[in-house]
Amino acid sequence: NVAVFVAFGDAFRVGTEETFDFSNVVHVGNGKNATVPFGYQTHATVIVGSVWGDDESKLLKIQVQNPSLVSIPDGKVGTMIGAESPFYAWWNLGQIKEVYFEASDALPVRNFKKGICALFQYQLLDGTYSEVDPSGECETKYISHSSTRYHKSKGNCHYDAKRMQRSEYGLRSNLKTSRSTDFTVSTDGALQKIKSQDYVKYLLNAQDRFGPYYESIMQMNVQGSTQKTSTQEGSDIDGIVKKLSLEKETLLTEEYKSSCKDNNCDNIISVFKQLKHSLTNDNVGKEASATAMVDMVRAARKATKEDLVRIIKAKSSNDMKGQIVDILGAAQTMASHQAAKSELLSSSDDENMFLAERYLQALAIGTRPKKEIVADLLEMALKEHMNVKFYDSLIQCLAAVTRRYAQLEGNSYETEVVKKVVNFLEEKIDECSREDCKLKFIRGLQNLKCPRTADRLIKLAQESTKAVSVAAMKALRSFSVYLWNDEFRAKFEDIFFQVSKRYDSSARTLALDILLDLKPDQDELSHLVQFLKSKDKAYELKQYLLQKLRMAAAQCSEFGAMLKNIIEKDGLLNNYNILAPKGLSTALSRKFSTAPSFNASLTSLQEMSGGVLKRGIVDLTLDVSDEKMSLFTLGLYAGGMSSFVSSNDEEQITDNNEEEDTTAGMELSVQGVVMRPLEFFNGKGELMGHVWSGTASEPTPAYQAITLLQDNEERFASHNGVTLALSSTGAISIDLNGQVTMSLWGRNAHSKVEQNTGISMTSRLSFDTSFASVDVRFSSVQAPQLHLSSALDFSGDPALCMQLVQPKSTLKHRFVGTIDLIGTKHQASRKTTKTFKLNGLTHSLNRKNNDMCNLISKS
């Protein structure tokens, strides 16, 4: 302490005052292109007098004089009201312990004054200190460059960040910050000049060239020489503060939000009136509805139940009821849940049930789960609903919302309400006697992804009927690969190689997927590849393995080199007979989009059986760094269809001589949440009805919804007393439709699936002070489409031609920055728009597919 005391010497000698020239320049703009300055500058004279104290503690009287404000770059003049009243600070050996204000000082004025006051907090001995200032409680490191020049850096600052982030890395936002100060003191240790800088960038992980930045530079330089000033009489600081009727605070600031004009700020009714034309059914699958979703959800989270009910009931809402339901599910407040329950879950007519199911699907994908909603869904699930489809969706919603709740900070799968849901689903599976009942709750476990249910699922996969076994394997495939130890690996190998018994080919392909996800070493990969030489008659499975190996080799050069080495060392393996098995199964991955858009890829896996599709998926994934996140998965399944195709394949001998039902349908997964399957038909009679009537040959909507992508927000406490509100919100609007035509005379079939997508991503930085309101918004919108068509000719040897087409589209980046100078009618604004034209393309699948397409086109 003696060393500290000596270092400060004559700093703030009682009975003297000094004058400083103060300025704060604030710039905001594009985080990746900060060439044009845009912001404001405040300027003032600051007089600091030491009015009471001893060698260690001083009471400083600080007064701001002649404050001014101008916008940058247009130089418009604003007003700063309330800043000139004096305030006081308790300075103790370089630290500001407390700050004292007049009762009339409003919150934003106090924040501004704290920013100035914090500049007088400094140390003269190198080292790391703990300090409190407007940035929060920070670790500060001081390094001296000479006896009078110092550098101070701040890190690990704790403040109320109010951070909310998606759990998926690809949909998070990245806050990059830098806080530093350089200052000069006199030989006596008195402050001469100081420059403090905060720099913030807020970028989307999915598009790291996209987002705002903020820079604040505060400077203060001493003016003239030290002057005398009057002092305060008193035995301690508390007595003086009481005598002056001041209010005590620390340097920590509190967020200030300006009041809404006409009290109509973000009111859900007014926002809905502005945006309802973008939410009509015709706009689903387009950018307009995705952009409207972003603004509507923001307003819906502040809305009352009564206002939300009013919107649902409005006559003008009839053409957009489904989209309003999507908004309620995404908002995930108790008000939105109660509004949905009272209006949608109160009656069981067909339209209400459709909308109620859509609400549950939206809620399942939502990102801000509440304990009360989890408990309410569980209570609803305990009473089995008469409507089978609704009850299935309720189970999937309950499981998905519970998983997200378990992933929240401070929660786990051991949290009480989560354990209740896990127990409920497990008990229900045990109670089920029918297969369809088991399948429903297995899907629930797939959405829940609780590690402790993995043992139950592997038991179901190994010991149950074909359908249950495949469903259990699908669930296990969706779990984190880090769960699988050697014991699980052995069980997956048992299923793939059929060591203990025969398994359905779909269960085997799923086991293979997991074994490859485990990143096999040379020995493990060699063991897998030996299957190609085996006498197993499942040639489609061999083709699927070969396709997966080629896909993995194309994605990872190390894997490719290891695979090549294994094949070249084995003469029996390295020949055409083994490496070109017959079969139509395919596995491939292609780029869907790259910069300037987000990085995404398409994975297509098609498992064939007897010339027809048995299980197929097209998965659109968001790729960020080494992380992949499924945005949308379209799955098709069929069984018992090979009797319509001429085939004498030995592979068609069904396992255990089970008669396979004729069935087909679609399985959708949105952002990793599995929906209940959409069944096209079940039974040959129903299939023939579709064939004769042609009901399957018209484009039929399979899925329409708008869901959130990014849903992040946080606060940043800046050194100048400002609190930045940072948010990134994205939405995806999907319209999926399909059609199938089949000719038994021509012995051919055609199918087409169209996915129309509107994507909108926004990133926002805003803050309010007593003299200016700043708002910076970035938006990126596009409408990519994907068309998947297939032609099957089964007049002779089955031939399948698939085409994957992406039509051309456009991408628009927009920046809008506004600064309102309070007390004036002036608003500075900057807007830029950049449009990118993205070419269309037809994806090259593989040579075999090209040959098949040529064959079919000639026939």
From TrEMBL:
The keyword Endoplasmic reticulum applies. Its main location: endoplasmic reticulum. SMART domains: LPD_N (SM00638). Keywords: Endoplasmic reticulum, Signal, Transport. SUPFAM superfamilies: Lipovitellin-phosvitin complex, beta-sheet shell regions, Lipovitellin-phosvitin complex, superhelical domain. One of its GO terms (molecular function) is phospholipid transporter activity. InterPro entries: Lipid_transp_b-sht_shell (IPR015819), Lipovitellin_superhlx_dom (IPR011030), MTP_lip-bd (IPR045811), MTTP (IPR039988), Vitellinogen_b-sht_N (IPR015816), Vitellogenin_N (IPR001747). GO terms for cellular component: endoplasmic reticulum. Pfam families: MTP_lip_bd, Vitellogenin_N. Gene3D superfamilies: Lipovitellin, beta-sheet shell regions, chain A (2.30.230.10), Vitellinogen, superhelical (1.25.10.20). It is found in: Endoplasmic reticulum. Residues 12-631 form the Vitellogenin domain. This is AGAP010234-PA. The lineage of its organism: Eukaryota, Metazoa, Ecdysozoa, Arthropoda, Hexapoda.
